[in-house]
Design brief:
One of its GO terms (molecular function) is mismatched DNA binding. Keywords: ATP-binding, DNA-binding, Nucleotide-binding. It holds the Pfam family MutS_V. This is MutS domain V protein. The protein is α+β, with helices and mostly antiparallel strands. The protein has 2 domains: about 5-95; about 100-200, P-loop containing nucleotide triphosphate hydrolases (Rossmann fold). Helix content is about 45%, strand content about 10%. Strands 3-6-4-5 form a 4-stranded mixed β-sheet, covered by helices on one side. Strands 1-2 form a two-stranded antiparallel sheet. Helix 1 (about 15-35) crosses helix 3. It is elongated and about 85 Å long. The chain starts with a strand and ends with a helix.
Length: about 200
Amino acid sequence: MNIRDKNGRSLLQDTSKEELKSAYEDLDRILKRVALTEAPLLHLILNNLFLYDLWILGKISKWKEKHSAFLEKSIDDLTLFDSLFPFANLKWMFSDYCFPEILSENSKEGISGKGLFHPLIPSEFRVSNPLDQVLEGNIVLITGSNMSGKTTYLRTIGVSSILALAGGPVPASRFSLPVLKIHTSMRNEDNLEEGISFFMRK
């Protein structure tokens, strides 16, 4: 299996199953010997007779020297996998999500989307909305009657932006944005499940 990151670097390509198994078996043997130091009397005898602590330290140093190079890369790769799996699972669970387009720094386009919806509102109650392109430096006014969904719409854009910039799928049929920062200030709490808006809270 050949898995590559976005830069084309192969992941876990230089690590064999046998190497990983050998490294962790060696470490397990060392840890079992370290466990003997938890018994005070036995620890005292071993230290007096064999300088046990120094012997253990030598074992750990040799293990690190032998395995650290490939283990460090393997752990970095596994960390990347661990961060990506939740997003892959999210897309698998919700097929109506889409993967966004992250615009380049030189792009003159702004944030835009189609079919955006709030991920916490059940499908039978939610309403999808578009987001016309908003260029850098422009201001958009969201108007509407009380409890009509203005705050939910803003939250939808914010949540979609955060998911997109984290590398995940977004609740929309299409979404593109440049790299940006999210700024918000909301003191009152609404309740989407009960249909209680910020206006009703106030």
